[in-house]
């Protein structure tokens, strides 16, 4: 019985036309599946007549995104065919459907080798293209010799394909690079532009991968310069002309190779300076191809050791790019200028106005690059003008730019501010414009700046007061304003501002503003804390509204906000039980010193000039500081997370005041006022080490310091032992040992200590935070106290909190 022959499959053109008539994706899938089934049946029938047609249709389906892996072996069969049409489709299918991850590709190695030695150049070209496209490292090792032979042939068609195939071989197997070195000697002498182009690509690959090859090919710089000069000076050539420019693709490739060869080499750079200047001045810029050549020229000039005049010429070309209507060209120019601004700052500065104009561009990518470049151009000479433009940009830019722009303005203003008033005005303008987008440290930094600018206090508090009238949307601005009103509210009411016309404000109007901040729905919890603390501070600065302040503070003692409630409760306690201490606790903050992390010297930058500033150690006071000088407690009450420092009270003052202060801050129920005894051991003293007031803790170095029991109450016992540091006699090392005699473990144990300002304290980490019950273990912690002047009398006050839990 004779087998029935399948009908002839439809042609590729008909398949494309049919698929394009599909109205839905499902209809298209149905057509593809039906055709794939017919192709599979044809493959099973070993139909050699229509194999080429079926593989071509399969490749089209692959391009549409449908699976076509079942046609891989059919591609190999077409490659093995003697027909050129079959080989062409077979090699195309191999390049699309095969890669080195599939072992099937190794089966075609022998076919490619045979075709590389074929008598027809077009078959050889197909084999070279396929090997250069998807050849694996194994195939490249096996066939590199054949490629090297074709690279030496006189046939220009084969030489250009062999050069590109050699590039792929070098990428896959770099150690075969030297095999192609002899063949590269005469490549640049070729007149054919195709061979020249691929030869330059091959030389570029070899130079990028091997320093030895780079040094070897540097002698070719004069020849490359000559080729480039001929391209520039040659007349019209219809074969290579693109928009009036002779072979721009070859020019770009040569410029890239020159950039690699001239990098970090004086001789090579010198040899190409003239030709780069010619390219930069003779290239037509009205067409995009000319701009591409100019851009490569600029990159080459900037990357080699070129002359200063040539670099200025390159930056001027980028400046002209900024005026181009094409957004891509403007973006490329801004990116390139941003890379060169550090090395050629003055040359880029000449185009500052054009760069600033790019801030108004509608394209967000151009805006961002222009913003980054504008900040890079800011210096002490142009800071006022540049900040004016950047503030205008901040006011009108999209929200995604505001955070970066605000941070950049802060940094530039801090580095190049011509005056403190200008600095404060600039930061306030930023907070007013984009307060919700500023970084977290903007508020404390501005507070520190205001605090240190003593002569600007009245001006600043008046400006901030007017800035928040009726508008609490910018939370950082409201926080700074609340802090300043609390600190300098008396200056605001008195109208002492000299920098601008003072305003008439009453105490009640100031409190109205702060109360509005407290009740505003836009106020965050932190902002309310600032406002409540400011109201509390005003109780010592205002005289007629103290009763109103007491009422406001008492209201928030029952707030659902725990932080706000805690502040209000503490402030109520100040009013009711410790009113005599309130003026001392709430007096004005002292000038803040900038913290340093790397030793006593910090770098201060003013208007671009760097100068070291040595932080001076304050001399010790002539006498004991009164309690009113305990200014650091304002840090705690002002919302700053700073460990309070409590100086020693005078011996004539009853110790109960300090004990009450410890009760307030440490929740300790210490009510007695025992008379300090001369002996260091005191049972249940109200202050730790209070009994040492009559006996100096810092004795002569030779004298021993006895151990003491510093605290013994509720089952908790804390012992102190002392020793001098061997390396620095001014350092006393105190080791504490805490034990627990109760039946339950004490958890979350935290020990805190404070010293006067003239001393330095270092608390090392404790051995644990849990004290075992029944004296079964102890916690140890080391404290180091430094007296920078000399060993002298020192008083300690500290408080501790323990949570007694099982």
Automatic annotation (TrEMBL):
It is found in: Cytoplasmic vesicle membrane; Endomembrane system; Golgi apparatus. It holds the Pfam family Adaptin_N. The keyword Membrane applies. GO terms for biological process: intracellular protein transport; vesicle-mediated transport. Residues 601-623 are annotated as: Disordered. InterPro entries: Adaptor_Complx_Large_Subunit (IPR050840), AP1_complex_gsu (IPR017107), ARM-like (IPR011989), ARM-type_fold (IPR016024), Clathrin/coatomer_adapt-like_N (IPR002553), Clathrin_a/b/g-adaptin_app_Ig (IPR008152), Clathrin_app_Ig-like_sf (IPR013041), GAE_dom (IPR008153). PANTHER family: ADAPTIN, ALPHA/GAMMA/EPSILON. This is AP-1 complex subunit gamma. It comes from Apteryx owenii.
């Amino acid at each position: 019985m004779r087998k029935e022959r399948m009908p002839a499959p439809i042609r590729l053109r008909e398949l494309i036309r049919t698929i394009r008539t599909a109205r839905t994706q499902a209809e298209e899938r149905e057509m593809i599946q039906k055709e794939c089934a017919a192709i599979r049946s044809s493959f099973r029938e070993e139909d050699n007549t229509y194999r080429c047609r079926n593989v071509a249709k399969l490749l089209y389906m692959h391009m549409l995104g449908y699976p076509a892996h079942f046609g891989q072996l059919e591609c190999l069969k077409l490659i093995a065919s003697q027909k050129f049409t079959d080989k062409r489709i077979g090699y195309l299918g191999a390049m699309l459907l095969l890669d080195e991850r599939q072992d099937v590709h190794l089966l075609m190695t022998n076919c490619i080798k045979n075709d590389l030695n074929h008598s027809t150049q077009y078959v050889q070209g197909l084999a070279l293209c396929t090997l250069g496209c998807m050849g694996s490292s194994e195939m490249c090792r096996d066939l590199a010799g054949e490629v090297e032979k074709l690279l030496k042939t006189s046939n220009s068609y084969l030489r250009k394909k062999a050069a590109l195939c050699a590039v792929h071989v070098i990428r896959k197997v770099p150690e075969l690079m030297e095999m192609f070195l002899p063949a590269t000697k005469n490549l640049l002498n070729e007149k054919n532009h195709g061979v020249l182009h691929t030869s330059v690509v091959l030389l570029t690959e070899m130079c990028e991968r091997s320093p030895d090859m780079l040094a070897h090919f540097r002698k070719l710089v004069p020849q490359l310069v000559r080729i480039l000069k001929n391209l520039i000076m040659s007349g019209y050539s219809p074969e290579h002309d693109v928009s009036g420019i002779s072979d721009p693709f070859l020019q770009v490739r040569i410029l890239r190779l020159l950039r690699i060869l001239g990098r970090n080499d004086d001789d090579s750079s010198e040899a190409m300076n003239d030709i780069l200047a010619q390219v930069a001045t003779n290239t037509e810029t009205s067409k995009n191809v000319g701009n591409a050549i100019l851009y490569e020229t600029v990159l080459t000039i900037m990357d080699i050791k070129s002359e200063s005049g040539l670099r200025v010429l390159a930056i001027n070309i980028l400046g002209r790019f900024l005026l181009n209507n094409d957004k891509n060209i403007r973006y490329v120019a801004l990116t390139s200028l941003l890379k060169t601004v550090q090395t050629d700052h003055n040359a880029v500065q000449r185009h500052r106005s054009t760069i600033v104009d790019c801030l108004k561009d509608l394209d967000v990518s151009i805006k961002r690059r222009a913003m980054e470049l504008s900040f890079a151009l800011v210096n002490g000479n142009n800071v006022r003008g540049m900040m004016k433009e950047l503030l205008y940009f901040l006011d009108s830019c999209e929200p995604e730019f505001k955070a970066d722009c605000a941070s950049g303005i802060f940094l530039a203003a801090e580095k190049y501010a011509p005056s403190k008033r200008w600095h404060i005005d600039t930061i306030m303008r930023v907070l007013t414009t984009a307060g919700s987008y500023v970084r977290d440290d903007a508020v404390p930094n501005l507070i520190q700046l205001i605090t240190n600018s003593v002569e600007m206090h009245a001006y600043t508090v008046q400006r901030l007061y007017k800035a928040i009238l009726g508008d609490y949307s910018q939370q950082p601005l409201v926080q700074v304003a609340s802090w300043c009103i609390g600190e300098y509210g008396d200056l605001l009411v008195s109208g002492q501002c000299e920098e601008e016309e003072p305003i008439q404000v009453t105490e009640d109007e100031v409190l109205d503003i702060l109360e509005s901040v407290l009740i505003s729905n836009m106020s965050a919890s932190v902002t309310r804390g600032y406002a409540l603390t400011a109201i509390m501070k005003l109780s010592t600065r205002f005289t007629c509204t103290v009763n109103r302040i007491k009422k406001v503070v008492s209201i928030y003692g029952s707030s659902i906000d725990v932080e706000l409630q805690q502040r209000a409760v503490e402030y109520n306690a100040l009013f009711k039980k410790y009113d005599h201490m309130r003026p001392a606790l709430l007096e004005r903050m002292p000038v803040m010193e900038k913290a340093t992390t790397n030793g006593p010297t910090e770098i201060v930058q003013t208007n671009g000039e760097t100068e070291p500033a040595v932080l001076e150690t304050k001399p010790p006071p002539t006498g004991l500081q009164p309690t009113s000088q305990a200014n650091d407690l304002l840090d705690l009450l002002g919302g700053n997370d700073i460990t309070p420092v409590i100086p020693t009270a005078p011996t004539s003052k009853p110790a109960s005041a300090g004990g009450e202060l410890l009760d307030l801050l440490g929740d300790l129920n210490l009510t007695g006022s025992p008379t300090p005894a001369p002996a260091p051991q005191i049972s249940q003293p109200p202050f730790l080490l209070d009994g040492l007031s009559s006996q100096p803790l810092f004795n002569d170095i030779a004298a021993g310091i006895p151990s003491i029991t510093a605290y013994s109450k509720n089952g908790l016992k804390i012992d102190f032992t002392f020793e001098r540091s061997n390396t620095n006699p001014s350092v006393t090392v105190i080791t504490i040992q805490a034990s627990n005699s109760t039946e339950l473990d004490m958890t979350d144990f935290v020990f805190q200590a404070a010293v006067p300002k003239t001393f330095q304290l270092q608390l090392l980490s404790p051995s644990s935070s849990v004290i075992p019950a029944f004296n079964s273990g102890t916690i140890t912690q080391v404290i180091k106290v430094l007296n920078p002047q000399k060993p002298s009398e020192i008083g300690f006050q500290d408080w501790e909190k323990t949570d007694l839990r099982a």
